[in-house]
């Protein structure tokens, strides 16, 4: 192996993973089982192995530490300020992932003591610079609702238009006009009727829809 005359930084991946539960945007965190920051809450993540790509590493770490796999994953940003990790010079490539609430089956594994969901407005103190990563991920999530079908990644296999509207209202933290929202969503031609219906309260049964291309996010022109 070639010996370099200058030191090399280590490379890690960290993952911000969201879901919606009880009309609230939730973030998945792990409690660190080892040093540094033992017992502190942090984002799932870890060091990239020599024989794997960045996304491969992110998916591996996510499954090893939380049991979550097969979710939508997108690269967020690279964080590399000196001193962000007390062990050594570490550069991390951050990712964010979205998971429908009906697919939540998390578990703590690997070097994590515990794993849990936290409201984005009720986060504990986080290890490393993970609070900065979370802030950027939330801004990206909100921004992409305007020009992509990203929000559809939160939806279960079948859903009503009311449930889809609630996703947008929860993330944007504002109410939306029902008629205009439905007109806009249907015009995207990204969802289709399933032929099934679901009763919502005392109202007449509502049509159920599904995403035409689950796992894919399209840019809205």
Largest sheet entry: 7 strands, mixed
CATH architecture assignment of the largest domain: Alpha-Beta Complex
Cα distance spanning the termini: 49 Å
| CATH superfamily (homologous) name of the largest domain | Nucleoside Triphosphate Pyrophosphohydrolase
Q: What low-confidence regions span 5 or more consecutive residues with pLDDT below 50?
A: none
Q: What is the number of independent domains?
A: 2
Number of strands: 9
CATH topology tier name of the largest domain: Nucleoside Triphosphate Pyrophosphohydrolase
What is the H/E order?
EEEEHEEEHHHEE
- The structural class is alpha+beta
Mean pLDDT: 91
Helix content: 10-25%
What is the C-alpha radius of gyration, as a whole number of Å? Answer: 19 Å
Q: What overall geometry do the principal axes of the alpha carbons give?
A: elongated
What's the number of helices? 4
How would you describe this structure to a colleague?
The chain has helices spanning 54-66, 130-144, 161-172, 178-187; strands at 10-21, 24-32, 41-42, 45-47, 72-79, 90-98, 112-119, 191-198, 206-211. It is an alpha+beta fold and 221 residues long. The chain folds into 2 domains: 10-141, Nucleoside Triphosphate Pyrophosphohydrolase (Alpha-Beta Complex); 150-211, Arc Repressor Mutant, subunit A, CATH 1.10.10. Strands 1, 2, 3, 4, 5, 6 and 7 form a 7-stranded mixed sheet that branches. A two-stranded antiparallel sheet has the order 8-9. A hairpin with a 7-residue loop joins strand 8 and strand 9 (206-211). 25% of the residues are buried. The mean pLDDT is 91.
């Amino acid at each position: 192996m070639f010996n370099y005359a200058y030191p090399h930084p280590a490379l890690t991946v960290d993952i911000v993973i969201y879901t919606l539960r009880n009309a609230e945007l939730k973030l998945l965190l792990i409690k660190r089982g080892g040093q540094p920051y033992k017992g502190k809450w942090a984002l799932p993540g870890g060091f990239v192995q020599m024989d794997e790509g960045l996304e491969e590493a992110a998916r591996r770490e996510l499954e090893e530490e939380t049991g979550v796999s097969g979710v939508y994953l997108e690269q967020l940003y690279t964080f590399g300020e000196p001193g962000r990790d007390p062990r050594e010079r570490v550069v991390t490539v951050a990712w964010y992932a979205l998971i429908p609430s009906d697919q939540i089956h998390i578990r703590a594994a690997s070097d994590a003591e515990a794993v849990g969901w936290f409201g984005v407005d009720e986060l504990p103190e986080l290890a490393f610079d993970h609070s900065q990563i979370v802030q950027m991920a939330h801004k990206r999530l909100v921004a992409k609702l305007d020009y992509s079908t990203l929000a559809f990644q939160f939806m279960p296999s079948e859903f009503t238009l009311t449930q889809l509207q609630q996703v947008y209202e929860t993330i944007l933290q504002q109410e939306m006009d029902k008629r205009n929202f439905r007109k806009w969503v249907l015009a995207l031609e990204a969802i289709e009727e399933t032929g099934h219906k679901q009763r919502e309260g005392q109202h007449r049964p509502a049509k159920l829809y599904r995403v035409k291309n689950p796992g894919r996010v399209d840019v809205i022109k």
